[in-house]
């Protein structure tokens, strides 16, 4: 007896072979029955299709099972493909065999439930069409990041998650008991990446990142994923151009592979295509303040970091992401050097996305001045001895080098047009949530 070939719903809808007998397995997405007929909508990872079950077209026990099977019951079907303009996808399956693999209990998720309830039920809500679409786009984006860097001669490099140093501010460190000592969850891969560029020259990484930020905004997570890169012989201009190319490449890959998901999320594909094919502007922090003060009447004082409201107002004047360089030196991390042409600013940048999504990439040229870094670290109360290994990188054959981090969830949220970054990761971790 020949082995059953299970078809995906997408295959059935793409092939449009009416009167073909197919085998399909998946889960009940919607169901209703009346008398001698049951209408079920079946889902799998590729989509949904209506399945019509009529008494007399299959054994009586299978028909009764079809009538009593609830939403999320797992099923195996045999049926004939028929065109039906009344069906949601224009085709339906006339069922000849209906095997229930598992009868589901009444599903706890129904319409119009609160975001907090859905987060409590995340292990089940992850099955929704919305989250499934977002996670498929996320997978494409992550694959695109790997492809982008590998095709350009970068080596993947992994750094420890348990680290003795802070890099992005001591107040956001997660402390971990490490045998008889204490260490911290990684805020970034950067310090270890800077060690590696003196051997591998061009490297990248995809890894989890942890920030104990006491923020409850829709843009912050306590655990998120960063795609970071670091390269020797690269200055600020070079690294910002790489960042622009990467974001456009990610977007183009999503447009190539996830049009169905983008449509389901009601995203404007033409608008995204325009962004993928456009040049991204580069402006300085000082120029950004001019735009805000002259065109938005905001009166932002030079020296203050751009908050969410300033970033959103700034993006009223751009329809693609932009790069903002040369933020005030005094508010930057110790590893960001001063610009010799404008010493009150740092050789650093952020990329800001349109549509109130804020910063999606942040990076800089790296500081090579050990004395300057020691001074900044002492001022912030850091133990200089913890950084001696890092300073060694400047003592033995140092060269100009630069890097950046791209927030995977922020890029996914922007591409998908979702309101809250929590939906850009399978199981979000925030100041108030660490389960399920």
General description of the model:
By secondary structure, the protein is of the alpha+beta class. It has helices at residues 9-15, 60-68, 115-120, 122-125, 129-151, 190-200, 236-257, 259-264, 269-277, 285-295, 308-314, 370-379, 388-395, 408-416, and strands at residues 21-34, 37-44, 47-54, 74-83, 91-102, 155-156, 162-163, 175-178, 181-185, 202-210, 223-232, 282-284, 322-325, 338-339, 342-346, 348-353, 358-365, 401-407. Helix content is 33%, strand content 27%. The strands form four sheets. It has an eight-stranded mixed β-sheet.
What's the structural blueprint in terms of helices and strands?
Elements lengths: L8 H7 L5 E14 L2 E8 L2 E8 L5 H9 L5 E10 L7 E12 L12 H6 L1 H4 L3 H23 L3 E2 L5 E2 L11 E4 L2 E5 L4 H11 L1 E9 L12 E10 L3 H22 L1 H6 L4 H9 L4 E3 H11 L12 H7 L7 E4 L12 E2 L2 E5 L1 E6 L4 E8 L4 H10 L8 H8 L5 E7 H9 L20
Parallel strand pairs: 3-5, 6-10, 12-13
Antiparallel strand pairs: 1-2, 1-4, 2-3, 4-5, 7-9, 8-9, 10-11, 11-18, 13-16, 14-15, 16-17, 17-18
Helix pairs in contact: 5-7, 5-14, 7-9
CATH secondary-structure class of the largest domain: Alpha Beta
Fraction in beta strands = 25-35%
Uncertain stretches: none
What would the average pLDDT be, to the nearest integer?
Answer: 94
Q: In terms of structural class, how would the helical and strand content be classed?
A: alpha+beta
Q: Count the helices. How many?
A: 14
How would you write the strand order of the largest sheet?
Answer: 6-10-11-18-17-16-13-12
Biggest pleated sheet: 8 strands, mixed
